[in-house]
Amino acid sequence: MTSLPLISVDPDARGRRPSMPPRHLADLDLSGRQALVTELGEPAFRAKQVSNHYFGRLVRDPERMTDLPAATRERLAGELLPTLLTPVRELACDDGATRKALWRLHDGSLVESVLMGYPDRVTVCISSQAGCGMACPFCATGQAGLTRNLSTAEIVDQAVYLAGVAASGAVAGSPPRLSHVVFMGMGEPLANYSRVVAAIRRLVAPAPEGLGLSQRHITVSTVGLVPAIRRLASEDLSVTLALSLHAPDDELRDELVPVNQRWKVSEVLDAAWDYAATTGRRVSIEYAMIKDVNDQPWRADLLGRLLAGKLAHVNLIPLNPTPGSRWDASPKPVEREFVRRLRDAGVSTTVRDTRGREIDGACGQLAAAGDTDGDSRAATA
């Protein structure tokens, strides 16, 4: 594991009450940015110029925006590109191919995101909330509770910043361009619905309006907020839906995913199948393998019956350790038997690569905890 340099931050940020950040160009579509620039007394085309720097060139330093008049660079950048994320610390492992960033927001809230480089792609896992209110007991983020929703721009800025890291060539052995974004960081994306959908539209719109990613390379994870899943299906987006199921039966899922007490397994799966039918996109079923909790052969068989013949793929996730947890990952022989039973039922199944575990950057480990002496750390609690 490599610890990258600590960057000092405003010590007065601690103790501020949670609040939304200042307006940023990523909060607005291009016409909204043009209207704002016009209000500032500048020609509307300046919005396109600044947007192209941010989304197209991944530049936010006004001194590098040389196509703007020197007299207006600082003012335009200040109004359109206020600082949203202040890096606190980055940790790296896998020879630098996995990098976790801890950010401090303007109100002192902390969030994390993770960059993962592969030979054929670069993926970032971004947060949609500071903390999470879903209270899943095996997840460090859920146990931390919810601080607040992130703004559209705070969500997008994570991807833009890490796209810049990839473009710098810092991720050896990977393409120098961000290609995939997964909403699997801190928070329940569909509990911050309008801002997450707006962020997706920024990520997929071509520059200068957005980052120009493929809709099919965006994945939105949810614990199963049924009305929001159905609403997402109507958005004319082709993003992948990832459903954090973790148990095929209501008795256990009520405990592992408390929102199941509101929407039961059958209701959640019905919404997922409607999403698949509307979008043509295969649903990813996320299933954390927890020793002696949800890994019994009969649960594999039940899951196989629920998913057989459906447009779905199962992602089995070896439970990642979190401090103080009473649960552990399933033994490998148990995991292999679970996979075998699902595949025998005709269900496409893989076991997720647990990238970032040693820097607490793997699934379920993000908690954005910092210490109290000014040397904040990207460690989970």
Task: Tell me what you see in this structure.
- Helix content is 31%, strand content 18%.
- The chain is of the alpha/beta class.
- Helix 5 (152-167) runs parallel beside helix 6, helix 7 runs parallel beside helix 9 and helix 10 packs parallel to helix 11.
- 49% of the residues are buried.
Structural class by sheet pairing and helices = alpha/beta
Task: Give the ordered list of helices and strands.
Answer: EHHHEEEEEHEHEHEHEHHEHEHE
Rg computed from alpha carbons, rounded to a whole number of angstroms = 21 Å
Largest sheet: 11 strands, mixed
Rounded mean pLDDT score: 89
Number of DSSP E strands: 13
Helix percent band:
25-40%
Distance between the termini: 19 Å
Global geometry: elongated
Specify the oligomeric state: single chain
List its salient traits.
disordered C terminus, alpha/beta, eleven-stranded mixed sheet, elongated, 381 residues, two-stranded antiparallel sheet, 13 strands
